[in-house]
Amino acid sequence: MSWHFILGTSTFIAVAIFLGRLGMPESLRWLWSVGRKEEAQALAKKYLPDDALDDVRHEDVRKGSFGMLFSRQYWRSTLFISAFWFCAVTPYFAIATFADNVLNQYGLAGGVGLSAIALAGVIVIFLLIERVGRRTLTVPPQWLCGVVLAIIGLWAGAPAFAVLTLFLVFSFFNAGYNTLTNVYPGEVLPTEIRGIGTGFAAAVSRVGAGIGIFLMPMSMESLGAGPTMLVAAAVALAGAGLSQWLAPETKGKTLTEAAAGYAH
User: How far is CA 146 from the centre of its chain?
Assistant: First the structure.
């Protein structure tokens, strides 16, 4: 199957999401922050529990700006969510998009299996995130994925079963902490720059996705499978080190508490 078709199918999902978003109400916190309190109260009454506005009422919201992302107070948040997202998706898009080609380099097949395992990783994160916590599900899996990719890159002549197992392990845990890239941005930034910061981090991550998609085939052809996997390992390990330093634990905190606790 052509990679052009594989990438093109994402258009259908994008259109479906676009249509699904039509008519969605504004964020409760955004409405409150811009003074549209009656709309916020009506929205909360219609969709949320009785105490949904309690945290919002106690949030001190200022006027946000793009420059605030790099201020002394929030640069750590911006660096973390942007670099974490970049390092999470770069090897993911490189390997997942060309799964069959990558596995063929090792005499294997099973790209669909990698995707199925990745889906299982997402489901596990969904079930455990409020029990185990964000940091625990973010930091150790990144170290593990970096080591797994390094083993694949260094273990020349490894048995096919061992290589396939390592790829499956990577797919499971990488998909898991990739899920956290959709959680952390909204929790470590205050309301006034939450949208701007999430958009900036997403833009940085798309750079990583593009690098993974367009450079992977060239790297596999010019450098070979082993060195390419070592480059992917270096990216994953860089993300692990950054998360070890900056990833907060926000489990059980309101958005106001989480953002205030991470600002410096």
Answer: 16
